[in-house]
Amino acid sequence: MNDLPVPEAMRIGRARLTAGLDRYTSIDLATHQEIFGPMRRMTARQLVEMAESVDLRGRGGAAFPVGRKMRAVMQTAASRKLRPVILVNGTEGEPGSAKDKMLLLRSPYLVLGGALLTARALSAREIVIGVTGGGRVAKSIVAAAKAEPDLRKILRVVEVPDRFVSGEGGALVNAVNGKVALPPGRKRRASDMGVDQLPTYLSNAETFAQLAVLAMLGTEGYASDGTAEEPGTVLLTVGGSAGRPAVVEVPTGVPLGNVLDICEATAHDGVLVGGYHGMWLPAEIADEVPISRAGLDAAGGALGAGVVLPLGAGTCPLGEVARIVRYLAKESSGQCGPCKLGLPGIARSMSALADGSGGMDALDAARRAASVVRGRGACAHPDGVSRFVLSALDVFTDDLAAHLFRGSCGQPVRGILPLAPEDDEARLQVDWTRCQGHGLCRSVVPELVQLDNQGYPVFLDMPVPFWLEKEAQQAVAMCPALALRLSAVPPSEAPQSGRTALPIAGPRTLQLVIPPRELPPGS
Amino acid sequence: MPVAFLLFIVAAIVVAAVGSTRVGHVIGVAAGHFLLYYAGVFTLISLTAAVGIGLVATDRIIMSPASRVTAQAVHRAVSFGAVSFLVIHIASEILARRSHAVDAVLPFLDHKRTFYLGLGTVASDLLVLIAVTGILRRRFAETSPPWVWRLLHALAYVAWPMGIWHGLLSGRHGQPYVDWSYGALVAAVGVALLVRFVAKDRSGQTAGQPVPERLASAWPPAAGAAALGQAGFGTAHLAISSGAVPVGRPQQRALPAGTGAQVTADLPADRGQVVDRVQFGHDEPAADFAYDDPRGHFHQDDPRGQYRQDDPREYFYQDDPRGQYRQDDPRGHFYQDDPRGQYRQDDPREYIRQDDPRARFHQDEAPAFENDSADYEDTGPLPVVPYSRYGTRS
Question: Which end of chain A is least crowded, N or C, by CB within 10 Å?
Fold first, then answer.
């Protein structure tokens, strides 16, 4: 069906979401029905009760109870006498996560089935799927929807820019509504005002797949795997230094070490769980911690959206962390002051620690800067970065000591942690033979340029974020020595993932892949 | 941008509508007279301000970087004003038939017109050149050495005095205080330029010291710029003070004896030299090893060479404790003595790990999706699919 490479799927225990993926690259409708049987219909009450009895939580990272969210949508829909919208979040802005893309590419009917089930239960007027992935995921969904007449009538696929923050719920709702895909300044629950100002049930793609599975298995069947507190399975995306990176389906309670083993990975220096808003676990804990929200909480981590990135050996942990913090700073949407000034500051301190130019001052500055941004933004981006940096400083103490006292740990930065490719993005570059230390660039873009003790600029090694483009251009234009330029260079480290980064833009570039009215009749 | 464009169109429509009325016509004629009378004056004033602020913006002694950023921004705004007034000035002069359209571009064409009008044309041409290259400054920063742009921009110090000359002598005669003011401003700018170069010299090379050879090269642009610099028109980078080596082609020079190299010194010294192939290392026996196969000789006496000559893999691990289990299947033996293997065997979820994880992992498990739902539409038994591995790599 599809010759392009797709994420590999593995499983521990019985197959649920990954059923059939051992035989098929991609599951079509007939195969789906052969494996899972026909989709059943349920009433809203049945669905909510089932979700609540197994305590099904959202799988996008925030783990909000599905039942409660559904009740909220039902209440708003009833009081305002409106039919709600089902919004499937398949955007996965996290570079390390592939589970939703894997599901949407390889087993789309599971997600679509879950969405259709929910739509029927809540008598929704429309199902909207927000995806990224450069058109490939969207094509897969559209192709899948064509074969299923019920879906075709109410499905709309919206492609959103592939950015870290565009996966945030509010940003997705904005994108679907034709606005810029950025988190809104004022929190509005999608269940009150979502797509087209209608009450919207918004969940992550895996959550809909879990709902479909729950409906098929029934509560008892669903609870037959996993721990009693958090029954069922979890999709993990294992990458980083893993010899066999894959999306792995595991029942809750299985030790993380087992997952690392089947992905041919070792924890060694540490494992990042929960993605770039998550936390680092040292090897001895990572091997034995049971996979569940409670298990990871107890170990001082967070399951988040199930991203598992073992660092392995032979790479500089602090260098890797600094590289990711620079990326996260660039991925800030630049809307909130504490985030757009604070994150480059954290990135600068972490980079200084990693390259040995920082010392205790940089460590202090990093800790303070990471602590001060918490809770001070429209979305949870600064909080997540803060968590990520502080846990890295806690876990990589040996490496930190080496960097503080010897300047370096002696290991190269291999770029184990995946990033979206950055090669076409412009960076500020200086001709050192021309630079005379006038210092105007620092006055214009302090976020990207600071001065050293001699008054010469120190650049933050990251592409110019879109919200600093104007200032960066001004710095180039104002440099008295004509020493600055703004051009794209291949980043020092090769990109680790094949994701394509779309530039952030207004509604014009939002591609409505297949609006419901334009669907070909009866194909 | 579209908003500004819209505003412009609205303003144009309003002006056209007002202009079509009788009162509007009167206002329009009055405005035309006013601009004919004053546009040139405004051009000269804003050009003077642009030169002054531009010079101030380069100062490193009094100005902080932040105020220099502001000064640059003001310099740009005022320069834009100067060019705008220049366009109005030229257009109204031509419309009033006081000069010909050709005068806007080409100077000194007609003997009937005065020399001072031609000066204005030259100054205007230069100003347009400076404005265009100013807008393209970024391109220059990327593609050419800094002096190219600087030289072009320093033409302002030519255009401005010519503009003053034109302004004071071409049209009506001004008040004496106007003449004195412009004279004072030219003097002030001259002093400021001097300060700029002297201050730069302090930070870089001090005046009176031997000038680096690269500045005295025969490279024509540099030499030209150096001459400009001496005349006070260049920039700090190119400024040369007294005691300079005479500008000219470098002579052929011999390298110190024994190096065996010869310089063909026809090229300027600062652009690299063509040197004959240097045969260094005459006395070194090092050349010997290169004659034979380097690898063969190189390792002959080297203890490491012994096993390297043969297949490294056979010998390499012989004495290595790790070699013992590497020779066999790594997965089979690997966990034998490994503490990790131990805990796995006692693991509560032992069915996962008891046997070799790679081979038999799920062999005995019910492979298909299990449908335990009581009220589920029964579609018969689900297909039983044997699993040979966990997943499919595609």
Answer: C
Q: How many residues does chain A have?
A: 523
- Compute the distance between CA of residue A468 and CA of residue A491 in angstroms, rounded to an integer: 19
What's chain A's Rg over C-alpha atoms? 23
Query: Is the pLDDT confidence value at A386 over 90?
Result: yes
Alpha carbons within 13 A on the beta-carbon side of A227? 14
User: Residue B90 in 3-state DSSP?
Assistant: helix
CB A291 within 8 A of CB A259: yes
Sign of CA dihedral A225, A228, A232, A233: negative
Strand partners, A131: A90, A159
Nearest to A484 by CA among A523, A443, A423, A521: A443
Tokens of A127: 């199902």
pTM reported for the whole predicted model? 0.72
- How sure is the predictor about A202, in pLDDT bands with cuts at 50, 70 and 90? very high
Classify residue A88 as left (phi > 0), alpha (psi -120 to 50) or beta.
beta
- What would the two tokens of residue B278 be? 């240097």
Looking at residue B200, its pLDDT comes to 64
Best mutation target, B372, B375, B385, B390, to test chain A (most A CBs within 10 A): B390
Q: Quick check: A395 and A269 in contact, CB under 8 A?
A: no
Condensed to tens digits (0 to 9), the pLDDT of residues B230-247 reads: 443 433 333 333 343 444
Nearest to A23 among B366, B392, B393 (CB): B392
Query: Which residue in chain B has the smallest CA separation from A442?
Result: B65
Torsion of CA A502, A507, A510, A516, to 10 degrees: 170
Average pLDDT over residues A296-314: 89
Rounded alpha-carbon distances, angstroms, from residue B9 to A374, B2, B4, B82: 48, 11, 9, 23
Nearest CA in chain A to B203: A436
CA–CA separation, A8 vs A335, rounded Å?
37
With CA atoms as reference, the chain A residue closest to B389 would be A22
CA B72 to the chain's CA centroid: 18
| pLDDT 10s digits, A15-30 | 889 888 888 888 888 8
Q: Cα torsion for A321, A322, A328, A331, to the nearest 10°?
A: -140
Query: Closest partner residue to A217 among B68, B373, B385, by Cβ?
Result: B373
CB A457 within 8 A of CB A495: no
The backbone torsions φ and ψ at residue A511, rounded to the nearest 5 degrees and listed phi first, read -100, 115
Which are the contacts of B306, defined by CB distance < 8 A and separation ≥ 6? none
CA angle in degrees (0–180, nearest 5) for A223-A226-A227: 95
φ, ψ for residue A514, nearest 5 deg: -150, 90
Hey, which residues does A127 pair with through a beta bridge? A86, A155
pLDDT (0 to 100) of residue B358? 45
Residues forming a β-bridge with A157 = A129, A514
CB contact under 8 A, A22 and B390: yes
Spatial neighbors of A462 by CB under 8 A, at least 6 apart, are A326, A327, A329, A330, A347, A427, A448
Beta-strand ranges (E) seen in B201-323 are: 263-264, 274-275
For residues A118 and A208, the answer to whether their CB atoms sit within 8 Å is yes
pLDDT at B86 over 60: yes
- What is the DSSP code (8-state) at residue A255? B
Three-class SS of residue A469?
helix
Subunit contact B141:A482, Cβ cutoff 8 A: yes
Mean pLDDT, all residues of chain A: 85
Strands (E), A220-316: 233-238, 246-251, 271-273, 279-281, 307-310
* Nearest Cα to Cα of residue A307 among A326, A279, A269: A279
A463 C-beta neighbours (distance < 10 Å), count:
22
